[in-house]
Amino acid sequence: MIDFRSRYGRYALVTGASAGLGEEFARRLAALGMDLILVARRADKLDALASQLQLSSKVDIKTIALDLALPDSVDALKKQVKGLDVGLVILNAATLTVGSFLDNSVESQENVVTLNSVVPTRLAHAFGGEMRRKGRGGLLFVSSLIGYQAAAPYQASYAASKAYLSALSLAMHVELKEFGVDVTTLAPGPTLTEGFQNMVGIDFSKLPMKPMSTQPVVRLALEGLGKRAIVIPGVMNNFTDFLGKYVMGRVSGAKLFGA
């Protein structure tokens, strides 16, 4: 694996860092010697994680409790990290609604689009511009396998937001490559995160793959950064990606919900 600090700079910024994939990214990056800026809504979770990490590493850890879905939150974050050498940004914060599109409020759908698409767009634009100027940096977009399916009934806004994120990331991968900036999309399948375990109404036993733990997903993502445009962890997830694109995208969501 590459020397992250030498390649990207001193700080890695991780959004959605208080649990799940974000927490695991923080743990692994600290082990790799990266100083951290951890961003999430829950200050208590962030502080507890920072305290744990500082027991086992000597890296500098800054925590920023912030709801990125709120207006002006991205500007507030930029102000708080101004002057820091932020060379790697993990765009992980996300939310979702499940169930029929019309049975969820329009406000909840807009919140999904804001946090999953608008916020990473703004962060990628802000930090990506600075990385291009410096001639180095890394952006890792945490998308989802579901974003590559032809359609995803009962997770419509989430899948649409992740499809957008994947398309944006792939375009930026091409645009920034000549400037020495690595851009990679992580598109995991079902992963044992807090959000996954709190989902109701979905029969995951009908999936062809078993949920993965966060550790191998994050390991594969960081190993692929700078080497691959897209990382899809797991053999079955890669096979399902093929099926989702070309065979069964329109029916997969209905099968999960027993419709």
UniProtKB/TrEMBL annotation:
InterPro entries referenced in this protein's UniProt entry, alphabetically: NAD(P)-bd_dom_sf, Sc_DH/Rdtase_CS, SDR_fam, VLCFA-Steroid_DH
Q: Which domain of life is it from?
A: Bacteria
GO MF terms held by the record: oxidoreductase activity
User: Does the keyword field hold Oxidoreductase?
Assistant: yes
Q: What is its main location?
A: endoplasmic reticulum
Give one Pfam hit by family name: adh_short
Localisation per UniProt entry: Endoplasmic reticulum
Gene3D superfamilies xrefs = NAD(P)-binding Rossmann-like Domain (3.40.50.720)
Q: What keywords are annotated for this sequence in UniProt?
A: Oxidoreductase, Plasmid
Family per similarity comment: Belongs to the short-chain dehydrogenases/reductases (SDR) family.
Protein name in UniProt: Short-chain dehydrogenase
Q: Which organism is it from?
A: Paraburkholderia largidicola
